[in-house]
Amino acid sequence: MPRTKLIRRQPATFTPMFPTPFLSRTLSPLTATADELLAQADEMMRAAFGTLPIATRGEWFPAVNVSETKDELTITAELPGMSAKDISVDYTDGVLTIKGEKEQETTKEEEERRYYMWERRFGSFQRSLPFPGGIAEDKISAEFKDGVLTVHLPKTEEVKATPHAIPITEK
To answer: Do 98 and 152 belong together in one domain?
Structure first.
């Protein structure tokens, strides 16, 4: 997989579309205040939620759902345009890791085309999801259909939820 370089995002600055000396003098204190507010908001989000994964060029993160029943945990990941051979799934020390790489295919016709918007994602990805103990590792299975990867993590017998009635005494 290609190596990617992570770059820290800098706070946005406001630049007028048609700068004039008057506008520059007038807006300068406002842009400094806006930059300071953005930096403070960024710091507050980091303090509250920690650092979130930052996608760089050539890297993306597929949408993942995690659900639970009394017998298993199920993870679904949307991987449109990929096939099962492009994906690997690994479970080690309580962490499920889904890796893959989506190749960008170009044709001669596309090389001569000029794009104004490009939202499709290509490149490598990796998602690691920690799980508590109680997973039957030898029974984990995965299936891939219509661009959706589904991983089944069966629970061991000792952690399956069994309801216990609690007697209530009246006083």
So the answer is: yes
What are phi and psi for residue 94, nearest 5 degrees?
80, 10
Dump pLDDT digits (tens) for 117-131. Answer: 766 667 788 888 998
CB within 8 A of 38, min separation 6: which ones?
11, 12
Please tell me whether the overall predicted TM-score, pTM, comes out greater than 0.70 for this model.
Answer: no
What is the strand order of the sheet 72-78 is part of? Answer: 64-68, 72-78, 148-154, 141-145
pLDDT tens, residue by residue, 68-98: 998 999 999 998 888 899 899 999 989 999 9
User: Cα–Cα–Cα angle for 125, 5, 10, nearest 5°?
Assistant: 110
Q: Is residue 164 part of a domain?
A: no
Number of independent structural domains in the chain: 2
Q: List 124's β-bridge partners, or say none.
A: 59, 101
